[in-house]
Structures are given as C-alpha cells and as structure tokens.
Amino acid sequence: MGSRAMVMALMCALVMVMVPQVLGKRYIVGGKFGWTSNVNYTVWASDKHFYKGDWLFFVYDRNQMDVLEVNKTNYESCNTDHPIGNWTTGAGRDVVPLNVTRHRYFVSGKGFCFGGMKLSVRIEKPPPPPRAAPVKSNAPTTCYRSQYVFPLVFAIGAVWDSFLRVTG
Ligand SMILES: *[C@@H]1O[C@H](CO)[C@@H](O)[C@H](O)[C@H]1NC(C)=O
Ligand SMILES: *[C@@H]1O[C@H](CO)[C@@H](O)[C@H](O)[C@H]1NC(C)=O
Ligand SMILES: *[C@@H]1O[C@H](CO)[C@@H](O)[C@H](O)[C@H]1NC(C)=O
Ligand SMILES: *[C@@H]1O[C@H](CO)[C@@H](O)[C@H](O)[C@H]1NC(C)=O
C-alpha cells in the first residue's frame, strides 16, 4: 500500500508540474494569413486574450517583411528607426514570448507598417487555473480522489481480511 500510494503521489506531482507549462498558448499572428499586408491585426487581436506565458508566432515572407517591436508612439507613427526589439531571425518564422504584463507593439518595417502591418497586444495576468483550464483541472482532482480512494480500498480489504480470519 505504501509504495503504491507513493507512486500515485509522484504521478500526481508530475502532472501538476507539467500542466501549467502546457497552458501557455501559441498564437499564429494573423491566423491562416500569417504576418502579411491586407490583414487588419487590430481586428485579429480583438477577440483574443493574451496572457503572460503565451507566445506570438510570426510567419511571413522573410524576403519582404520583418518583425520589430516599438513603443506606442512609434507604433502609431510607424517609425521604425529606433525599434526597442528586433525579433527578425531571418527564417520568416519568429517567436516572441509574452513574458511581461503590459501593452506591446509590433510592426513590420520596410514600409509595410504604413499599410497596416502593425499589431498591438495587451498582455494580461493569467487567470487562476480553474478558469484557464476547466478540462485540465480534472487531473489534479482525480489525483486527490484516488489518493483517498486507494487507501480506503486497502483499508476495507484489510478489515475484511481480519474479519474472515476471525470468523474462518
Ligand atoms: C518612444 O520612443 C521615442 C524615441 O524613439 C520617444 O520620442 C517617445 O517619447 C517614446 N514614446 C513612449 C510612449 O515611450
Ligand atoms: C533585425 O535583425 C536581423 C537579423 O539579425 C537583421 O538582418 C536586420 O537588419 C535587423 N533589422 C533592424 C531594423 O535592425
Ligand atoms: C522576456 O523574454 C526576453 C526574450 O527571451 C528576455 O530577454 C527578457 O529578459 C524576458 N523578460 C522577463 C521579465 O522575463
Ligand atoms: C482595422 O479595423 C478597425 C475596426 O474596423 C479600424 O478602426 C482600423 O482603422 C483598421 N486598421 C487598419 C490598419 O486598417
């Protein structure tokens, strides 16, 4: 019983450690269109919540566009002379971790910002786990339950065992 409960507890601990890491969501900026002109990224972002721990994935034509992070002023004016971040790796597939809770502004240089290739996201504090993952929260609940159920089953078994021994 001891070792079985121990294995159970270890497995539960493992699940609980791994679940939060799976929770971070990866957004392909622009969805099926990707990072390109003729997409309104304000509209794209409007029905989404971005949480700290999520990721932005920019997929685009590396020969034409790039991914620059700018401040609010330069986002509005499309000034890319002094970006605060250059996420361009050269592959046309750039990943940006949303690891701070504030507004962040991304544009493409090379003139594309003026055509509307600009994205502003508000990164929020992640909601408490039950709201973030109603489905996944089942795992720990099951763990708690089986941690009680297994000893209970063994206890009943032991009592039944001794009962048989006494009467038999
Ligand atoms: C953004 O940076 C520019 C300099 O490139 C500066 O003049 C401006 O005040 C900054 N805006 C904000 C909101 O920090
Ligand atoms: C951004 O970084 C890429 C890759 O290092 C580089 O080729 C490009 O010139 C940089 N762009 C700007 C605007 O600094
Ligand atoms: C966020 O991620 C960037 C890039 O990986 C890193 O340079 C920066 O230090 C991180 N910031 C925080 C607050 O973790
Ligand atoms: C995107 O759509 C919004 C809402 O319809 C509009 O206000 C905004 O000007 C559009 N942005 C661009 C760059 O076209």
UniProtKB/TrEMBL annotation:
Keywords in alphabetical order: Signal
Record bears the keyword Signal: yes
One Pfam short name: Cu_bind_like
Domain Phytocyanin: start-end pairs: 25-125
A GO term from the CC aspect: plasma membrane
Superkingdom of this protein's organism: Eukaryota
PANTHER family noted in UniProt: BLUE COPPER PROTEIN (PTHR33021), EARLY NODULIN-LIKE PROTEIN 17 (PTHR33021:SF231)
The protein's name: Early nodulin-like protein 17
Name of the gene: LOC110775211
